Amino acid sequence: MPDVGLCAQLACIWEATARKAGNVHRYRDFDDAGYLDFLVSAAAIAPVLTTACHRPVGETVLECVRATRAVVRTNTNLGIVLLLAPLAAVPPEEPLRPGVARVLDALTVADAVRVYEAIRLASPAGLGRVAEQDVYDAAPTRTLREVMAPAAGRDLIARQYVNGYADVWDDGVPAILTGLRQEQSLEGAILFAQLALLAKHPDTLIRRKCGPAEAEEASRRAAAVLAAGWDAFAEFDGWLRAEGRRRNPGTTADLLTACLFILLREGTIRLPLAYPFLHGLPS
Question: What pTM did the predictor assign?
Answer without folding.
Answer: 0.94
